[in-house]
Automatic annotation (TrEMBL):
PANTHER family: CHROMOSOME 9, WHOLE GENOME SHOTGUN SEQUENCE, SRPBCC DOMAIN-CONTAINING PROTEIN. InterPro entries: Polyketide_cyclase/dehydratase, START-like_dom_sf. The lineage of its organism: Bacteria, Bacillati, Actinomycetota, Actinomycetes, Kitasatosporales. This is Polyketide cyclase. It comes from the Bacteria. Pfam families: Polyketide_cyc2.
């Protein structure tokens, strides 16, 4: 099962990072990766998401929020057509650091019968996650 895992330390407390992360309308001001992020971060809610991977074309998704543990974890599940074809569980996990900062773990786990054909997009998507992480860090540390 292909997985993307990224980590970033942010010099801001978890609640600050959570507030910026879950302010979906505010992403338009600072986020170069999630160029559209609409909906409410609560379990069962369907979101409207458009990503802009570096060097790739924009992609639209309608994932469903599957986990919310404020201010620690947010996860959503996106699917191509029907379950089991190409699924992606996208997650953000925030952990407090001893210095008062936050460790962000941002990743996605892919599954489904078409997963082997999607491996080519992993590098661009990973770069997009890292671009997002850097932008979130900058925004939270202002």
């Amino acid at each position: 099962m292909p997985t993307i895992t990224t980590r970033t330390e942010i010099a801001a407390p978890p609640q600050r990072v959570w507030d910026v992360l879950t302010d979906f309308p505010g992403h338009q001001e600072w986020d170069p990766f999630f160029v559209r992020l609409e909906g409410t971060p609560r379990p069962g809610e369907t979101l409207a998401v458009t990503i802009a991977p570096p060097g790739g074309k924009r992609m639209d998704f309608r994932p469903r929020v599957v986990e919310l543990d404020a201010p620690h974890r947010l996860a959503w599940l996106g699917r191509l057509l029907v379950p089991g074809i190409f699924d992606g569980r996208h997650s953000f996990e925030l952990s407090a650091l001893p210095d008062g900062g936050t460790l962000l773990r941002h990743g996605e786990r892919f599954s489904g019968v078409l997963t082997p054909f999607g491996r080519g997009m992993l590098a661009r998507t990973t770069a997009g996650f890292e671009t997002f992480n850097d932008a979130l860090k900058k925004r939270c540390e202002q």
